[in-house]
Amino acid sequence: MTHAFPAGRLSGQADKLASLAAEAAEEADRTGVLCAGLVAALSDSGLPRHFVPARWGGSDGTFTELTGVLVTLGRSCASAAWVGSMFAYTARFATHLPVRAQEEVWADGPDPLWVPGLVPAGRSRRVEGGYRLTGRWTYVSGSEFADWALLAGPQPGPDAAPPLFHAVPRTDFAVERTWDAVGMRATGSHAVVLDDVFVPEHRTVPLPEVLGGSNRMSDSVQHNVPLPAVGGLTCLAPVLGTARSALSACVTTVAGKRTGGGSAALDVTLTGAAAAVDTAALLVERLATVLDAGEDRVHALRNARDSAFTASLLREAVDGLMRAAGTAAQNRGGAPQRNWRDVTVATSHAALRMEKAASAYADSFDPHALPV
């Protein structure tokens, strides 16, 4: 069963992107770098402008359409889909910046490539006209391709104001190549390093406003979403696409084993994995639908729960497929083992960990009603 996501302007680029990504996937996995042509295609596709306001030439797009494109792209290359997701979702964070900053960053068009450093690091020191920012932000996916980074920096002192998001151009930060994981190898999730960089005040916004989804610059539903409601979906759409690819690749790999009647145990594994992937797709669709309907604040904890549950569902399905496929699936350079490594690494992300979502969700239990 294939679940359909509504088509739109961005959706028209999905198959083209997926084709380019498929051609480059093996090389990207081997080298740990997305090729320049694919990055250019991601830039030109409409992904970076998807959540950019129309006043700056952006698409004012929906979560549902973006999710469908990322799932399609994830079937070809998990790293490409992940980086494309970072470009789109970080630009959504940037809609919280003051108008002056938005004019500055989108003056020449809506397609600069944004990347996030969500976890406060380093030090943000108040000075006349702005802040001096110093520090090192790790696991910043897409950093080597970025035009701008949004970096969370705490301010010093016991009575300090809340952390700030700082918009920093590529000319002001260095990229330290630290990412060398067994999967998601070409996401460019390296460290971003700043040394006493001046960030004008108009290029900052309080981090709690962004994470809490309170956007003073826009009344768009998509621009006013709390991070717990959307954070999992950011990572999950590429994983769903990759799990679909894993299912297809493993079915092809084990086709010979099923000749002449096959194995009941193998058939159970394949069928269970297919059901798990379809179930995951239904949950992912609901996540996106809730966000686009403006119901994210009501269902934020459920969204976080469902994201973590869906990630575990997909990881277990792909694990089972690899065991069922056996030695033939382990060939270096082949799609099954690459999909397996990518799903394993991607689902270890903090936004997809059940232990993070479970406590908050359990605290919301109503003893008089079944939580939904």
Key attributes of the depicted protein:
Butyryl-CoA Dehydrogenase, subunit A, domain 2, 3 domains, disordered N terminus, Butyryl-Coa Dehydrogenase, subunit A, domain 1, four-stranded mixed sheet, Butyryl-CoA Dehydrogenase, subunit A, domain 3, alpha+beta, 8 strands, 372 residues
Describe the overall structure:
By secondary structure, the protein is an alpha+beta fold. It has three domains: 10-110, Acyl-CoA dehydrogenase/oxidase, N-terminal domain (Butyryl-Coa Dehydrogenase, subunit A, domain 1); 114-206, Beta Barrel (Butyryl-CoA Dehydrogenase, subunit A, domain 2), CATH 2.40.110.10; 225-363, Butyryl-CoA Dehydrogenase, subunit A, domain 3, CATH 1.20.140. Helices cover 47% and strands 13% of the residues. The chain contains eleven helices and eight strands. The protein has helices at residues 14-31, 36-44, 63-76, 78-94, 99-105, 207-212, 227-253, 264-292, 300-325, 335-346, 354-363; strands at residues 114-117, 123-127, 130-140, 148-153, 164-169, 174-176, 190-200, 204-206. The strands form two sheets. Strands 1-4-5-8 form a four-stranded mixed β-sheet. Strands 2-3-7-6 form a four-stranded antiparallel β-sheet, with no helix packed on it. The radius of gyration is 21 Å and the shape is globular. The two termini are 25 Å apart. Residues 1-8 have low confidence and may be disordered.
**Series of H and E elements:** HHHHHEEEEEEEEHHHHHH
Strand order of the largest sheet: 1-4-5-8
- The overall number of domains is 3
Strand content: 5-15%
Q: How many strand units?
A: 8
Q: Mean pLDDT across all residues, rounded?
A: 91
CATH overall fold name of the largest domain? Butyryl-CoA Dehydrogenase, subunit A, domain 3
- Distance from N terminus to C terminus (CA atoms, Å) equals 25 Å
CATH class of the largest domain: Mainly Alpha
CATH superfamily name of the largest domain?
Butyryl-CoA Dehydrogenase, subunit A, domain 3
Low-confidence stretches: 1-8
State the shape: globular
| Estimated helix fraction | 40-55%
Class by helix and strand content?
A: alpha+beta
Let me know the largest β-sheet. 4 strands, mixed
* Number of helices, where a helix is a run of at least 4 consecutive DSSP H or I residues: 11
Q: What's the architecture of the largest domain, going by CATH?
A: Up-down Bundle
Output the radius of gyration. Answer: 21 Å
